[in-house]
């Protein structure tokens, strides 16, 4: 008995738009950036003179490392990863939309990377050009294994998409170099990179090549992490290099790197948010591939802490700019947080790998939450402007004049000095089809995580089965899946019952399904499972009520006390100044309001908007030149509060934005 | 016709306690610190490795500069000012409480300072010891004129208290050196110090010596400020020194130094809060002493902006730790602010100098607000522990684990690396008698700013008049003033009608005063003026209702929306975890509550406490492992909210603290 997913094609209107943007805008645009051909403003993500940002220079770095040009490395020590993430996005894009010219370009980049790789497989333009003697000697800051991981991910994707073996060959040589250099052997480094990434890349390389050493190495890095808490400090003390690898970075606590404790002992999601979720992504994969139940338990523990105590309602994570990090339970300030786009993308990776381990809808709920809100909120509708930081409350004057909010942008800049987020989005969107289903092969079950119009081709016991999913989501709640089979085939088709739907109805071949009747439909772990012998043109329909929800945060979230956030389906909504005037905090919802939903074709490329009657506090003459007063009479004007989905904020004129709304 | 204030003696119980603490605890304690004899923990006010804090070394620096010892300067570049502020506090203390031994000690410090002064009058141990060639070449950071100002202030106070001319002589030589070095002359420096202070010191020196050059120099510094916005940058470019005077400081914008515009053009209170109020203090004095109405207008403008848009209800100023600075109008976050003790002390200086210009109760109201809340809140009841930062909302775990709140301490440390606040408090408290009255000599009027039990001796047309003020404030609202005259004397006695009293009654010699009856009592600018021929044992009584007030902030203060702060008389109240349990934000006041006031002798050295019935939100089982939920039923438990005056928070076990309380 077996069930495998062979291919997936997205034809969904909402998502095809984004994927086309990646192909037609982001990939060419990023290529220009990587080659310093783009006439754009590269914006620093923070006010910090240590940040190199005049140009990308990323391709130039490879040419210099390859010996094709003279010069110095420029940019971040992890600048190479921009090229790798571009390459990975190209790989996925080619799998969706073949393009000989683009493939030729990517092949040439791989040729260049091959030239930049050293004899022994080592690959890193910064250290090859500038400081070869410091190789692997400053792992807290060097990002060498981080960059290697991104190349390996790209190579795996490129092989899967194009069968180009050259990139894969470079990746294996690089992985072999790392495998030789790290471990418990006499001349090996017993340590790990400051930024997790190699771990998750090695599991992908293992999954493709079945080379056990790669899985073992990933596991080694994970288990080594945090066991010897003096590792980074010792490396720094022993390093003879005089200049910092990254200026101003060496004061971070070990939690920043998740290196404060062995990972199985870590009870809470700590430190740099992207690193944490990258680590967890690898842990979940290792748990699955190595059957490591202790690792799975650790994943569940970190997941639970993060999701039930440290995640924004938009799927953002990282409560502080200082270290782009988690802080403490229930500390979720809306106007100073970080909520990096990459962190939500990493959260999606983690959620998906947990789904591969165990079909529980909570993982897919979070995946969907991060995807439909913070991830796509990280890019403008034009596909050319990007947020690094995704706030839930913005006041442009505060961003301009309060240094503590200078990282909170109110318009999406064109590019960033540290350009991790845009290419990360590109690779997520082009690989989105991978996230729709997960398969539990042994149970012969396929789980529908995301409702996206698409066609999936399965192989079940050597027979081809197609699932033709058609949905009105994300705007309306109808999902239908039609099966196409070569012969009647028995398997379980499970559909997620999302957190935002209080109810559902299931119709199979036109008949409503009620438990105990002709069709078995068992609900467990948030999925409704239909186990039957499927015929061609069987049709299963799931109807989800698309009610407008008022969400309340846990009472210990001080930032949200007395406030509600509005959601409909997968979307969290927000108010913008352009629709509501300034001083959004003066507007308050009254209880039991009647929300009006309307899809507006003309608005922001077509979005469902929500209007609701509300009241706006008036600033009476009593307050002229008065800051504090007793015996205040509070008066309100009636107003209509207009809300749009959070993901499309900051696509019109700049102004205030607010997710958590005051409630009377 | 003339009216002069000759002497003042405070006998008030509340304030005598504080003044005694300065004499018996702070002055000896600080002396030990200055001599590195104290067995104390010197706490960094921020997590910054650039801060020198192992020891004070301040007296040692003088010994080295004086040639009595070998060695290097240690500590901040402005370490000298700790000695000067100690000396100033000693001066005031000696005027209250003669102490031959202490005076001898202070004389010996002055002898030491005299030895450290250079031939030409220059005085600064850092530059004399370490970098004499950089004298006056890095004024943005060097604090040379700032330190000079503090010495001059101390010398003036010491002369007034002890008639010791040596300190005054040093001060004049120092002022002459500065006068020779700065100005529009050919070989003079056309510039000013990064930290205002010399300006206000020079007006004091002028007032004592009547040397017009000192007033002119103060005025010069003020008018020069911000006219040439390239001054600091040019000095930095021309400076041949290689090490920074203060590490990490040179990135500050000109607003930080109030050097972005000529001061008459500055419309808003910007930059480092202490600097701003020190500048304004000098401006108000120059306006008075030089009859400079444009300067007075500028003072009024900056005052109004600060008081009506940028001041906390506790009289704290400085909304951000970054630059210890103002941010923008109505931006008053309660848990990340700075609200430095010194800034509120500077605000008191400014308010008092404005009162000297014009008798308007708003200045005295703010003076009182800052004094009774943030200023004395800056020290523990034991007189040995001090806050630098005075928050309005504290959560110890957030201070521990959120880097953005690491500056917000929840217990008062013993001392600080940058020890400006404790000695600033010492000199304020020992000179407090100066703030009780202001005199408008030409109108033959005396204004009662503060209600403090005390005896004032006036000279009116060469006759002695005593005002014996007795008050039950700050806890109850009765004030009486008995006049003692040599002969019936005509003058106006004006009493402030404080902002916290909606009503008042005035009784003169046992008779209620109603306008138009036998006694004239005119209310204007927030004072009630009684103009009559006073006899010995005339008695004027002012009865102020001590109602408990619910204060609301201007609706544009987002941090306080939906919240109230409780006050009674001059005190703002707060809730502490020790009285109310954890999660103070879950408690909410219901409208029109019945507040209970009770003076508790046993509590915190004797304070008036306030209790009120309130409700505390329960965390129901619905929230187990849930972060966001719809269809939430909110339930409350009845509770009694217990409040204490803000100034005495953090004197019991550590925990949460909250000023702005949620209101249902």
UniProtKB/TrEMBL annotation, chains A, B:
Pfam family, one: Glyco_hydro127C
Gene Ontology molecular-function annotations: hydrolase activity
Record's keyword annotation contains Hydrolase: yes
Keyword Hydrolase attributed: yes
Cited SUPFAM superfamilies: Six-hairpin glycosidases
Span of domain Non-reducing end beta-L-arabinofuranosidase-like GH127 C-terminal: 551-662
Recorded superkingdom: Bacteria
Signal peptide per UniProt: none
Domain Non-reducing end beta-L-arabinofuranosidase-like GH127 catalytic: 9-433
UniProt keyword annotations, A-Z: Hydrolase
Residue ranges constituting the Non-reducing end beta-L-arabinofuranosidase-like GH127 middle domain according to the UniProt record: 446-546
Protein name (database record): Glycoside hydrolase family 127 protein
């Amino acid at each position: 008995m077996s069930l495998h997913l062979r291919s997936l094609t997205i034809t969904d209107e909402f998502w095809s738009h984004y994927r086309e943007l990646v192909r037609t805008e982001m990939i060419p645009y990023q290529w220009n950036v990587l080659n310093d051909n783009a006439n754009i403003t590269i914006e620093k993500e923070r006010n910090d003179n240590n940040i190199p940002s005049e140009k990308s220079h990323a391709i130039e770095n490879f040419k210099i490392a390859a010996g094709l040009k003279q010069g110095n490395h420029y940019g971040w020590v992890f600048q190479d990863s921009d090229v790798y993430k571009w390459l990975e996005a190209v790989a996925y894009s080619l799998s969706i939309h073949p393009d000989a010219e683009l493939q030729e370009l990517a092949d040439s980049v791989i040729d260049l990377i091959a030239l930049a790789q050293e004899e022994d497989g080592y690959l890193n333009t910064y250290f090859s050009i500038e400081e070869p003697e410091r190789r692997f000697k400053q792992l807290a800051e060097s990002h060498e294994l981080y960059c290697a991981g991104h190349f390996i991910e790209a190579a795996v994707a490129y092989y899967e998409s194009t069968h180009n073996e050259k990139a894969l060959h470079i990746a294996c040589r690089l992985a072999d170099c790392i495998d030789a250099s790290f471990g418990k052997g006499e001349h090996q480094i017993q340590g790990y990179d400051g930024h997790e990434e190699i771990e998750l890349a090695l599991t992908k390389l293992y999954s493709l090549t079945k080379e056990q050493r790669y899985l073992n190495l990933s596991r080694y890095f994970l288990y080594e992490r945090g066991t010897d808490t003096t590792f980074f400090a010792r490396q720094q003390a022993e390093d003879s290099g005089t200049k910092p690898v990254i200026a101003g970075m060496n004061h971070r606590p070990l939690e920043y790197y998740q290196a404060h404790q062995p990972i199985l002992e870590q009870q809470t999601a700590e430190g740099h948010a992207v690193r944490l979720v990258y680590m967890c992504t690898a842990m979940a994969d290792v748990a699955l591939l190595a059957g490591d139940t202790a690792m799975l338990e650790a994943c569940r523990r970190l997941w639970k802490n993060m999701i039930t105590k440290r995640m924004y309602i938009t799927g953002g994570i990282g409560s502080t700019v200082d270290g782009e990090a988690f802080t403490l339970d229930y500390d979720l300030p809306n106007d100073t947080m970080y909520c990096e786009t990459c962190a939500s993308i990493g959260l999606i990776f983690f959620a998906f790998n947990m789904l591969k381990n165990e079909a529980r809808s909570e993982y897919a709920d979070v995946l969907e939450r991060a995807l439909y809100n913070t991830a796509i909120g990280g890019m403008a509708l034009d596909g050319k402007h990007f947020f690094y930081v995704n706030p839930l409350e913005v006041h442009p004057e505060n961003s301009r004049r309060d240094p503590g909010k200078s990282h909170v942008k109110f318009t999406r800049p064109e590019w960033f000095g540290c350009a991790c987020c845009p290419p990360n989005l590109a690779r997520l969107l082009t690989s989105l089809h991978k996230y729709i289903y997960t398969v539990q092969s042994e149970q012969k079950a396929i789980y529908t995580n995301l409702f996206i119009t698409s066609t999936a081709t399965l192989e079940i016991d050597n027979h081809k089965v197609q699932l033709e999913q058609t949905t009105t989501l994300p705007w309306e709640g109808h999902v239908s899946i039609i099966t196409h089979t070569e012969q009647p085939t028995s398997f379980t088709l499970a559909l997620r019952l999302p957190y935002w739907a209080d109810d559902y109805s299931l119709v199979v071949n036109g008949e409503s399904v009620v438990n105990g009747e002709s069709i078995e439909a068992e609900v467990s772990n948030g999925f409704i499972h239909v186990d039957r012998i499927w015929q061609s043109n069987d049709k299963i329909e799931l109807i989800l009520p698309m009610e407008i929800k008022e969400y309340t945060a846990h009472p210990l979230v001080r930032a949200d006390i007395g406030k509600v956030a509005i959601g409909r389906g997968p979307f969290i909504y927000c108010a913008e100044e352009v629709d509501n005037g300034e001083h959004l905090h003066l507007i308050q919802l009254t209880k039991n309001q009647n929300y009006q939903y309307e899809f507006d074709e003309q608005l922001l490329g077509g979005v469902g908007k929500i209007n609701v009657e509300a009241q706006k506090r008036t600033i009476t003459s009593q307050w002229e030149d008065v800051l504090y007063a007793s015996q205040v009479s509070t008066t309100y004007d009636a107003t209509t509060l207009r809300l749009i989905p959070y993901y499309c904020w900051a696509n019109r004129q700049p102004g205030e934005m607010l997710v958590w709304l005051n409630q009377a």
